Amino acid sequence: MKFLTRRNLAWGLIALPALLSALYLYVLAADRYESESVVTVKQSGDQPVGLAGLASIFQVSGASAHADLLLLQTHIQSMDMLQHVDKQVGLRQAWSAPPRDWLLRLSADASNDDFLAYWRQRVQPRFDDTTGLLTVRTQGFTAEQAQQVNRAVVQASEVFINQISQRLAREQMGFAAKELAMASEKFRDAKAKMLAFQEKHRMLDPAAQAQATTALTLELQSRLTKLEADLRAAESYMDANSFQVRAMRQQAEALRQQMAAEAARGTADTKAGARLNTLAGDFRELEFEVGFAEQAYKSATLSMETARMESMRKIKSLVLVASPTLPEEAAYPKRGYDLLALVLGFALVFGIVRLLVATIEDHLD
User: Fold this and answer.
1) Sequence-ordered list of residues with C-beta below 8 angstroms from that of 282, at least 6 positions apart, any chain
2) For the residues 106-126, what does the mean pLDDT come to?
3) CA 59/CA 207 separation, integer angstroms
4) Cα separations (Å) of 229 from 124, 139, 225, 233?
5) Angle at 284 between CA 280 and CA 290, to 5 degrees
6) Element (H or E) spanning 354, and its range?
7) d(C-alpha 111, C-alpha 79), whole Å
């Protein structure tokens, strides 16, 4: 225990680690620059709700915008985003470049999982619930590299938001178009059935024809009633075999026969094999079917137009509130702050070890 003196511990636990840390921070550690951009999602149908800051200008409101930004935040740190940006700017090669800083550089043969973990350390999206803004910070070993990565992330994010918006619009329009096509087909089928019915029975409207027959029967009945009254009046003062009385009797009989024929027309079978009253009932059913199909077609057409307007109203786009910055100074490492924090940590370890050594010496004595 004699070598565990205060001086030796101070050199071993504070001075030497602090010297090595300073050597790494000021000689080996590569500068890391940070580029920052701010984005949000705008929906064409949004209404201003008076949020604080720039969010009120872009009318970002409601749970939908927040959900989109949270979804975008997750997408930015996904493998899909990493692969896209890697193809754009060659990230694996760029982040493996600093030859001296072996602690922070990406291994040239790093696995995809290690590459993704490294990406999440260097690309950090932060969503602010208060303002509804998403801040994207990207790091690079040069200022241009950090800005280039940030621009690639913003461009890919815009494509992602547009794809979400377009997919929702396509789904709405597709459903409305499908309903319209079904309603149109039913309407055409109903009209075709009615036309086939009219051609088969050679009647434009059996119900109207039945009404016309009834009206004609009533007219004949009225004429017969008047003629019979005139006949009785004539027979009261004229000979029953006179020419005029016989003519009136013949006219009355003709009217009765005509009335019987018209009455039979409504209930007797037609040439097509069905009675007029039956045809009228069947035709009414066809008319109801056509009317119902027409209303459904009009409703589907209105729904299609509404869906089109609604999809246009809900089109979403990524709004670039602040463009990716080109940093003038390295943001990391913060050499003075990091060295001070390390020295304090070493001093804490030194104090703990000294306490342990003193406790052991007391027990040995």
Assistant:
1) 197, 206, 274
2) 91
3) 61
4) 107, 114, 6, 6
5) 140
6) helix 335-364
7) 12
Percent of the chain with pLDDT over 70: 81
Select the more confidently predicted residue: 183 or 53.
Answer: 183
CB atoms within 10 A of CB 191: 15
* DSSP state letter for 325: P
How many CB atoms lie under 10 A from the CB of residue 235?
14
Query: Are the C-beta atoms of residues 9 and 354 closer than 8 Å to each other?
Result: yes
* Model pTM above 0.90: no
Q: Which helix (H) or strand (E) holds 127?
A: strand 123-128
Report the chain's terminal Cα–Cα distance, integer Å.
12
pLDDT in tens, 308-358: 776 666 677 888 999 999 999 988 888 888 889 999 998 999 889 888 888
- Residue 104: which of 114, 118, 90, 83 has the closest Cα? 118
Cα separation, 31 vs 261, whole angstroms: 110
The answer to whether the bond into 333 is cis (omega within 30° of 0) is yes
- The stretches of 34-137 forming alpha helices (DSSP H) are 55-58, 62-76, 79-89, 91-95, 112-122
Buried b (16+ CB within 10 A) or exposed e, 110-144: beeeebbebbeebbbbebeeebbbbbbbbbbbbbe
**Distance of alpha carbon 303 from alpha carbon 181, whole angstroms:** 12
**C-alpha 308: how far from its chain's center?**
12
Residues constituting the chain:
365
Those residues whose C-beta lies under 8 Å from the C-beta of residue 130, and which sit 6 or more positions away, are: 52, 53
Tally Cβ neighbours within 10 Å of residue 61. Answer: 18
Answer yes or no: are the C-beta atoms of 158 and 171 closer than 8 Å: no
**Amino acid (one-letter) located at 153:** V
The answer for residues whose C-beta is within 8 angstroms of residue 356's C-beta and 6 or more apart is none
pLDDT at 220 over 50: yes
